[in-house]
Write a structure and sequence with these properties.
299 residues; alpha+beta; eight-stranded antiparallel beta sheet; 21 strands; globular; Cas7/Cst2/DevR_sub_I-B/Tneap; antiviral defense; CRISPR-assoc_Cas7/Cst2/DevR; Type I-B CRISPR-associated protein Cas7/Cst2/DevR
Amino acid sequence: MKSKGLTLSMIFEAQSGNYGEGFGNIQVLKKISRGDGGVYSYISRQALRYNIINQLGWDNTPVEGSGSGDKKVVQFAPSTRISDYPEIDLFGYMKTEEGEYGINRPAVVRLSHAIALETYHAEMDYLTNMGLALRGKNLVNSISQSEIHKSFYAYTITIDLDRVGKDTDQAGGVTEEIPDEIKAARVVDLLKTVQFLYRDIKGRRENLAPVFAIGGVYNRKNPYFEGRLKLNKCSLDTDIIKEMLKDEDVKENTLIGLLDGILDNSVKIKADLAPVDINSLFNALIKKVEAYYNESGKN
């Protein structure tokens, strides 16, 4: 089986997608800062993984506590196998048993954080439970404060296609492998979920479906467009992308999709990059995945 990697970088628009540790009555967004002085909210890769697994219906892999006393950690049960549970096939595992060395499977599917492409400006939402408080008498109605930020976000997903459905021991020997058609089906299911991904948070359902996507199946396992999607006042910088397309492997294998009318410079994006619609991009990417595993099965 040829060593190939799938990578897809996407932009979506959402509001206040991930909160961290708060203090008092203040709920704090997860944020990072850059050298330009800007502060950017982000949705962690763990949060994205949770939503993907949940919407795939793969969140049924058995877990158990490992360790002793109050130092136990939750891990996947040692008896679980990748043939039975797609979650640990694609997202990896660590399993330990008392008195034995742990075994682990590095993730086949990797996610980056979804980082805002527009700076955070310290906006706050003041919340009360007035509707319920008015139903009772002499009830204390405290005020809660929540940081809010609406922005475009960008993240990248990468998949080692040759490692899907194949487990190995510490020496590298293959201990388990599933049929190629099941490998393809798992990757296809993942892509279909990412295409229409959403996130439930604070009583809202945020749409994480991409408005712009770029990627493909490549000979190198490089996340080519991670960190290369830049916005200037809601306009995508196409010059960076055109520079990336000068590489032969990238140019030959890259697919570009656009939801027209969302980004301010959609006309320029279509002129510079000749994108297809988002649905066509995912259909083409799915065909590439199926072709890869069909070809591998013949070798």
